[in-house]
């Protein structure tokens, strides 16, 4: 069994760094004003003016008079309203910025009251710089060199509910630190979920973080939910909701088992996140570790231990319930394509078995059909917590799919045996075009209608399935259009932060499923390298080049570097003294959990008393 390599093709595109800094090679050379623009969107519009100028270092190298034209690139959610082309006129080191440009939301993009998101902004151009005392014989163009300029930043877009949150936080000195617009995970949750001041009054004495207050409000919890839990956190890894829904009896039990893992398992096997999260006893972990194939790597071993433990314990639970475990599991594989047990704890498997075997069991309870990606089931995120919550109150069908046909087979088998589904959960990696759990196509949406109650709820617990990208299918919007009368709840953050609650006494069926999404950053778009195509260096001169890419790379790789230069794989800084002249095609890779971005750049190293190679 192979553990999934976490990937996502269009999950939220973020800029990794706000600038490009190089010494002895290429300078960022551009400075945004403000450095991080904030666009406050109102019901009727909203704009922000942005300026660009050259850095003092670049200005000092300007000679004569001229004009620099700049290219502006923005996220599809944004639009440059006015001010193009952007140009910088200079007379020696004195610059005049013409046509400051104005940003607004793209009119075609959704306009949500609770929007609180960051979108990229990139500027690039070229400048002809004088090289001071360098001999003209080295540079046929008279001591002038063309230098690439590029810099990026993020534009924070805040919806019209932000002023409401800002106002009630300002009246509470203890919460002023929450209003940190440099982050997405703090006050943004209060904005995204339109949290009223009354919810703050209820939860502030009990919880410390704004995202926990937002979650408590959105999930429809009452303060009694925290009784018996010593945590002032709700949805962090050791928060009360996280632990309760994962099956931990108390915070103390969580910390005790973690201590046990650290003392008994850590020295033998350092990777145990899957197993610990599923509460595999350390003794069982060590026993199962000895039974695994020798070719599994550390992460695969951890996953497979959790998977085998869940299967073995679940099988025991089915037998204890008086069910024929072999027949039940064969039926699950045949009808629902269910094979991987990691997200399914023994209690959940028991609910699945009772639902399948006895049509009268929980006859009045709603039917939940959960379809997961096979890929995600090998590297799951929120599915175990969502399944555990639904198993408390629902009849339950769980399937695993690779394609739309798989999805339709699972839902068709479910309705033949149990009738309409009241809630359908689609869980897996995805983007605005498809949820990878489906390989989804718009035609599939209408076909789902036959499997769903006329007032069913569909929960998209997949990365970015509520995001808007022009030209692509928006899964949430397409489902709403294809399935009128159904309620569609889309994740707008990464799936590791999916929290689901069910409120059976809510009069309106659409309000019974409460979903709170808080992204973790585990899934990202693959990086896009924005380092200039050509960088000029001087043989024997110390050089520092900072590589720049979008989507927060975790490490960098460079091949064919000139002799004398080295790469810091963590920071993306190339440094050293090039020893040989010539033109070097250097392949750069920027890597994060979403994938790898590649680009080949030319490092042109001029020899002493020699012009740059052309």
Protein architecture, described:
With 614 residues, the protein is of the alpha+beta class. The chain folds into 3 domains: 1-160, no CATH class; 321-525, Rossmann fold; 526-614, Immunoglobulins (Immunoglobulin-like, Sandwich). The protein contains 17 helices and 25 strands. It has a 6-stranded mixed beta sheet. Strand 15 (452-462), helix 17 (475-482) and strand 16 (487-490) form a beta-alpha-beta unit. Helix 10 (298-320) packs across helix 12 (346-357). The radius of gyration is 28 Å and the shape is globular.
SSE diagram, text form:
Elements: E1 22-23, E2 30-33, E3 38-40, E4 47-54, H1 56-59, E5 65-74, E6 78-82, E7 86-91, E8 94-98, E9 101-105, E10 116-130, E11 144-158, H2 162-170, H3 187-192, H4 197-203, H5 210-218, H6 240-245, H7 251-265, H8 273-277, H9 282-289, H10 298-320, H11 325-336, H12 346-357, E12 367-373, H13 374-377, H14 383-391, E13 395-401, H15 404-418, E14 421-428, H16 442-448, E15 452-462, H17 475-482, E16 487-490, E17 498-502, E18 513-517, E19 534-538, E20 543-546, E21 555-559, E22 565-568, E23 573-576, E24 582-592, E25 595-606
Parallel strand pairs: 3-11, 12-13, 12-14, 14-15, 15-16, 19-25
Antiparallel strand pairs: 1-20, 2-4, 4-9, 5-7, 5-10, 6-9, 7-8, 10-11, 17-18, 20-23, 21-24, 22-23, 24-25
Helix pairs in contact: 7-9, 9-10, 10-12
């Amino acid at each position: 069994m192979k553990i999934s390599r976490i990937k996502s093709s269009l999950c939220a595109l973020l800029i990794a760094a706000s600038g490009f800094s190089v010494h002895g090679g290429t300078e960022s050379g551009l400075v945004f004003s403000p450095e991080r623009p904030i666009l406050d969107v109102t019901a009727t519009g909203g704009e922000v003016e942005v300026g660009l100028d050259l850095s003092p270092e670049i200005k000092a190298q300007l000679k004569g008079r001229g004009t620099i034209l700049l290219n502006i690139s923005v996220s599809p959610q944004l639009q440059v309203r006015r001010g193009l082309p952007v140009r910088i006129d200079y007379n020696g080191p004195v610059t005049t910025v013409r046509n400051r440009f104005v940003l607004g939301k793209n009119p075609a993009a959704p306009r949500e009251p609770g929007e609180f998101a960051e979108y990229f902004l990139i500027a690039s151009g070229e400048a002809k710089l004088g090289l001071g005392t360098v001999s003209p014989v080295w540079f046929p163009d008279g001591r002038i060199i063309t230098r690439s300029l590029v810099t990026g930043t993020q534009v924070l877009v805040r919806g019209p509910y932000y002023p409401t949150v800002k106002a009630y936080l300002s009246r509470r000195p203890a919460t002023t630190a929450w209003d940190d617009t440099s982050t997405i995970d703090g006050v943004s949750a209060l904005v995204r979920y339109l949290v009223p001041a009354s919810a703050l009054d209820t939860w502030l004495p009990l919880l410390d973080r704004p995202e926990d207050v937002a979650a408590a409000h959105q999930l429809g919890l009452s303060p009694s939910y925290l009784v018996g839990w010593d945590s002032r956190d709700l949805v962090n890894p050791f928060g009360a909701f996280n632990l309760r829904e994962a099956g931990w009896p108390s915070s103390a039990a969580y910390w005790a088992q973690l201590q046990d893992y650290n003392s008994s398992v850590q020295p033998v096997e350092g990777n145990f996140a899957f197993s610990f999260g599923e509460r595999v006893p350390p003794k069982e972990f060590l026993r199962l570790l000895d039974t695994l194939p020798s070719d599994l790597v550390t992460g695969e071993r951890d996953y497979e231990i959790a998977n085998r433990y869940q299967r073995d314990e679940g099988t025991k639970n089915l037998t204890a319930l008086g069910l024929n475990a072999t027949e039940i599991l064969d039926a699950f594989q045949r009808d629902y394509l269910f094979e991987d047990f990691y997200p399914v704890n023994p209690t959940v498997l028991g609910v699945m078995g009772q639902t399948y075997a006895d049509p009268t069991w929980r006859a009045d309870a709603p039917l939940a059909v959960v379809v997961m990606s096979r890929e995600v089931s090998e590297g799951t995120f929120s599915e175990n917590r969502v399944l555990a919550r639904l198993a408390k109150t629902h009849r339950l069908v769980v399937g695993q799919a690779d394609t739309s046909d798989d999805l339709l087979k699972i839902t068709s088998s479910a309705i033949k045996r149990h009738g309409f589904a009241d809630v359908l959960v689609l869980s897996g990696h995805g983007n605005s075009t498809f949820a990878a759990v489906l390989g989804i196509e718009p035609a599939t949406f209408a076909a789902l209608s036959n499997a769903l109650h006329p007032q069913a709820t569909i929960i998209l617990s997949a990365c970015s399935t509520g995001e808007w990208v022009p030209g692509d299918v928006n899964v949430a919007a397409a489902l709403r259009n294809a399935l009128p009368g159904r309620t569609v709840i889309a994740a707008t953050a990464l799936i590791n932060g999916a929290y689901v609650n069910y409120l059976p006494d809510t009069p309106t069926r659409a309000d019974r499923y409460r979903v709170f999404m808080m992204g973790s950053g585990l899934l990202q778009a693959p990086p896009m390298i924005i380092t200039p195509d050509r960088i000029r260096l001087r043989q024997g001169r110390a050089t520092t080049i900072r590589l720049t890419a979008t989507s927060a790379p975790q490490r960098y790789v460079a091949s064919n570097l000139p002799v004398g230069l080295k790469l810091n794989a963590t920071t993306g800084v190339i440094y050293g003294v090039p020893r040989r002249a010539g033109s070097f095609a250097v392949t750069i890779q920027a890597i994060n959990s979403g994938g790898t971005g590649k680009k080949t750049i030319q490092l042109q190293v001029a020899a002493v008393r020699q012009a740059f190679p052309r």
